[in-house]
Amino acid sequence: xxxxxxxxxxxxxxxxxxxxxxxxxxxxxxxxxxxxxxxxxxxxxxxxxxxxxxxxxxxxxxxxxxxxxxxxxxxxxxxxxxxxxxxxxxxxxxxxxxxxxxxxxxxxxxxxxxxxxxxxxxxxx
Length: 125
Fold this sequence. Notes:
By secondary structure, this protein is an all-alpha fold. The chain is 78% helix and 0% strand.
């Protein structure tokens, strides 16, 4: 990697999931300052869009999960903890929760990790 390209490399990885190629570094290095800034701004904008999209997806996933838990509570007359425990068991691998806790469950059912503390607290973890 050419010297001084750590930031653009990190930004590129955040946006695309991988570090840029040597050819990209050379291309970027040869750009005039204004075009380097334009490339930087483009990558930052793309990253901002991805973060916003992820936030929307997280909200939708949390709402869908919460509706599923509420539906179980209403349908079976159970409390929230029991509904979540049943949902954990419905994953087919409740041992994963025993081993790794709520982060495993959040990953497995596709809900945001912001719910991890609530779930761990319910189960005294």
